[in-house]
């Protein structure tokens, strides 16, 4: 028969191993894996490209703006998904700028004025270029 202190040592070892396993599982479970991050990025890219459809409707009758929006939509469609947090932030900035374009096009629905909307489109172009720096790595 084993002495009592051996059983105590075994019990403490089992408890420590179980505690370490719980800590490791929580750390791993809290983070999204790269595949999930890429899927989210692909969804954001697709949503941004689709939101241009609404802008095209709002810009109908403004040929120059429509051409710019179509070119932008093509660029947005083919952006590479990325798990990088900086790219996620840029995608969010693009989404916000698209919302701003929508507001400006709604305001200027009847007029030919598109000044602010064009500035927002230029901002989006800059964001796309900046995004390319992070996805080219």
Give a structural overview.
With 137 residues, this protein is mainly α. It is built from five helices and no strands. The chain starts with a helix and ends with a helix.
Poorly predicted runs? none
- The helix/strand order is HHHHH
How is the biggest beta sheet arranged? none
Share of residues in helices: over 70%
Taken as a percent bin, the fraction of beta residues is: under 5%
The number of E-state strands comes to 0
Counting helices, strands and paired strands, the structural category is mainly alpha
Evaluate the radius of gyration. 26 Å
Structural shape: rod-shaped
Tally the helices: what do you get? 5
What would the average pLDDT be, to the nearest integer?
87
How far apart the termini lie comes to 63 Å
List strands and helices in order, with pairings.
Layout: H1 4-30, H2 34-58, H3 63-77, H4 85-107, H5 115-135
């Amino acid at each position: 028969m084993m002495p009592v202190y051996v059983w105590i040592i075994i019990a403490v070892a089992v408890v420590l191993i179980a505690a370490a396993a719980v800590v490791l599982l929580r750390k791993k479970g809290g983070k999204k894996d790269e595949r999930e991050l890429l899927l989210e990025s692909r969804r954001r890219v697709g949503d941004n490209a689709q939101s241009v459809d609404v802008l095209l409707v709002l810009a109908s009758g403004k040929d120059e703006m429509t051409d710019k929006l179509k070119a932008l939509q093509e660029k947005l469609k083919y952006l590479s998904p990325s798990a990088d947090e900086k790219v996620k932030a840029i995608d969010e900035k693009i989404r916000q700028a698209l919302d701003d374009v929508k507001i400006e096009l709604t305001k200027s629905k009847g007029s030919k004025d598109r000044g602010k909307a064009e500035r927002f489109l230029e901002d989006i172009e800059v964001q796309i270029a900046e995004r390319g720096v992070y996805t080219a790595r």
